[in-house]
Design a protein that fits this description.
Layout (H helix, E strand, L loop, with lengths): L3 E3 L25 H5 L5 E7 L1 H12 L3 H4 L2 E5 L2 H6 L2 H14 L7 E7 H5 L4 H11 L4 E7 L9 H8 L10 E8 L7 E2 L1 H7 L3 E4 L6 H5 L4 E6 L5 H11 L2 E4 L6 H15 L6 H22 L4 E4 L6 H10 L4 E5 L7 H10 L4 E3 L18 E3 L1 H7 L4 E2 L7 E2 H17 L4 H5 L11
Parallel strand pairs: 2-3, 2-4, 4-5, 6-8, 6-9, 7-16, 9-10, 11-12, 11-14, 12-13, 14-15
Antiparallel strand pairs: 1-13
């Protein structure tokens, strides 16, 4: 069996989340442990069987002692199931943990697991009691239940839950918030536009104190750059009345400019001028030209661990003269028009399902040099030439494309230790506060 299909044979409804799946050694993408560590003065408590806790503890331990100080666990055993004391264990276990923490955290994220749902544990009753006894601590119900991954995946759920502590507040016209990011948006066209108009930006990735985090409730507009952030922004729009503007990770210049114009309109500030857009396009095209010349026909492979829209990037690179050999993708979230254009543009594009069980035994050799855009693209092509970054890596718009071209040039010229790098969990994660 071939490990790939040609894109001409792939339906737009493709979804790999069916049946047995293969988990590759690539560990750079973030999970709920990593995102929870961004909350300053926060503490995570995982209430799970030992098999689940093993992964949680090892993930945190890789990040060092400061991260371990922000993690506690409560072990669920067979006796708890038989005795029916799951609620009591959750309550008393949390109280014991808090008695040993000095200073006390401002937020406690309690992660219940699949077994609590199977047994219909009334954990909300426990949280009500804890909130009464510890009024200075915000208790957040969080979930580590992969059995619910299709209806309520843990990662988007957590990005929403940590913001549930925000209360209705007076909105500030000169205050915006970035919601659901893993990294600061260092290469983003929106930031210069906001800053030159005196707009203050709240972003969890940049906050140092819990009070600074709570100040986000005063933002008049929330901006998202990831699909996983949509539930959080939608919830804030409903609960707090904050406007939500979705910034799409697109490589279509007109779409980028429409996003930026919508952002300016939402903040009631002047947008970029047509001359400024023309200059950004010129700079971007020059950077793309340089990258194409450096690669000089070397093929690339793209995966979804770095880029939210791998099909859009593949189409963009093909239209700019790059040789794109393959994409690795588990489901299609992009607009159907992009998918159809890519089918017509390169019908023999290799389309890998990286979750497929047969990827465990796929042929990872490659004739000649190939560059991976993302860790899985590197691993499945067994290439040391790759971009080692995840979760969009703070890139958006023209500046994001230019940054990506710089990374592509670096990947072509500087080989990396593939085995050493891809097994590091939560690449780039740091512990706030």
């Amino acid at each position: 069996m071939k490990a790939y299909q040609e894109i001409r044979d792939v339906p737009y409804t493709f979804n790999a989340d069916l049946g047995m799946v293969y988990s590759s050694p690539c560990r750079g993408t973030w999970n709920i442990v990593h995102y929870g560590l961004l909350v300053p003065e926060g503490h995570e408590i995982y209430v799970c069987p030992t098999s689940c806790l093993r992964g949680v503890v090892l993930t945190t331990a890789e990040l060092g002692i400061q991260a371990m100080k922000k993690l506690s666990t409560i072990t669920v055993g067979e006796d708890n199931l038989l005795d029916g004391d799951m609620e009591e264990e959750l309550y008393h276990g949390t109280k014991e943990i808090l008695s040993k923490l000095d200073p006390k955290p401002r937020m406690v994220m309690i992660f219940t697991s699949c077994v609590h749902h199977f047994l219909a544990v009334n954990y909300q009753r426990v949280y009500r009691k804890l909130r009464q006894e510890y009024p200075d601590i915000d208790f957040i119900d969080c979930y580590m239940d992969p059995v619910m991954r299709r209806k309520n995946p843990p990662d988007p759920s957590l990005r929403r839950q940590v913001l549930r502590v925000l209360k209705p507040a007076e909105k500030e016209a000169d205050h915006a918030a970035f919601v659901g990011n893993c990294f600061p948006m260092e290469w983003c066209d929106l930031i210069p536009l906001l800053k030159r108009n005196g707009i203050r930006i709240s972003d969890l990735t940049m906050t140092k104190t819990y009070d600074e985090f709570l100040d986000q409730a005063h933002a008049s507009v929330n901006f998202t750059f990831h699909r996983a952030a949509a539930p959080a922004a939608r919830d804030l729009r409903i609960r707090l009345g904050q406007e939500w503007v979705e910034m799409h990770e697109t490589y279509d210049y007109e779409a980028i400019e429409k996003d930026l114009d919508r952002a300016a309109e939402a903040m009631h500030i002047p947008p970029y001028s047509q001359a400024e857009y023309a200059e950004l396009r010129k700079q971007t095209e020059a950077k793309v030209k340089k990258a194409r010349e450096v690669l000089d026909g070397i093929p690339v492979s793209i995966d979804y661990t770095l880029i939210d829209e791998p099909l859009g990037l593949a189409l963009y690179l093909l239209d700019h003269g790059f040789e794109v050999e393959s994409v690795l993708i588990d489901s299609i979230h992009e607009d159907e028009s992009v998918f159809r254009k890519l089918q017509a543009r390169k019908p023999d594009l290799r389309f890998y399902n990286s979750l497929n069980w047969n990827m465990r035994a796929c042929d990872r050799t490659h004739d000649g040099k190939i560059i991976g855009i993302g860790q899985k693209a590197a691993y499945f092509n067994n290439t040391p030439y790759f971009i080692n970054a995840v979760e969009n890596a703070g890139m958006y718009g023209y500046r994001g494309i230019m940054r990506l071209m710089d990374l592509l040039i670096e990947a072509a010229e500087q080989p990396k230790d593939l085995k050493q790098l891809v097994q590091v969990k939560g690449w780039g994660c740091r512990c706030n506060g």
